[in-house]
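agent> step 3/5: call structure_predict on target 'DUF3565 domain-containing protein' (Acinetobacter faecalis).
agent> reason: downstream docking stage needs a structural representation; sequence fetched in step 2, passing through unchanged.
tool.input:
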Amino acid sequence: MLQAIIGFHLDDEQHYIAELACGHNQHVRHTPPWQNRVWVLTEDGRNEKLGVMLECKLCDDELNK
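tool.output (status=ok):
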């Protein structure tokens, strides 16, 4: 289910986590060549992604129970 990004925070390993409107969280790592998310490395880049929709697998799992 698509959910909007409403914020970001760091985990214990200093990886960014997107906070979703549904209350769930999702890692958004920049780990090239697998995940190219250079935007996550700057505050401006993260701010530009506020409101962007991400697929929330936890919401999908809850719907399929």
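agent> step 4/5: record observation. Strands lie at 2-10, 16-20, 25-27, 53-55.
agent> proceeding.
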